Amino acid sequence: MSVTLNDQDKLTLRTAAYGAVTLMSAADAAGKPHKAATEGSIALASATGLVGHVLAKAPKGKDLGGKSVAALADHVLPALTAAMTLLKKQDPAEAGNFRNTVIVAIEAAARTHQGQPSPTLADMARKIIEALDAA
């Protein structure tokens, strides 16, 4: 199956994936947010397939800073669902690849601590996974 993604589609995927890592980093504000962002971004850069080619570039043109975690979540969580919907329509295997890539990235971001992630990180990961599965 051939997948055709326009520039807006690619931006949606990048915003969703890198936004998920940014959310994890923001949820770790009291811990090691820079390390969480680094580990999550490395996981995204290690993606393969169509998803890997799209995520090879960080998102440009979309603000992932946000004035609060809530504002960032309002932007990123719908983008995750939109990315999954888009990919499921065109290539279910790539949708699975995208989902797995994002989950690996948020797990990498959460593992910057020894032992279990904090309740805040675990809750953010749950919200991200729910957004992925809402499609």
Rounded to an integer in angstroms, the radius of gyration calculated over CA atoms is: 14 Å
Kindly name the structural category.
mainly alpha
For the record, give the distance between the C-alpha atoms at the N and C termini, rounded to a whole number.
20 Å
Domains counted in the coordinates: how many? 1
Which characteristics define this entry?
6 helices, mainly alpha
Describe the structure.
- By secondary structure, the protein is mostly helical.
- The longest helix is centred in the middle third of the chain and has 22 residues, at 69-90.
- It has one domain (7-133).
- The chain has helices at residues 7-27, 33-45, 49-55, 69-90, 92-110, 119-133.
Quick take:
The protein is 72% helix and 0% strand. By secondary structure, the protein is mostly helical.
Draw up the topology in text.
Layout: H1 7-27, H2 33-45, H3 49-55, H4 69-90, H5 92-110, H6 119-133
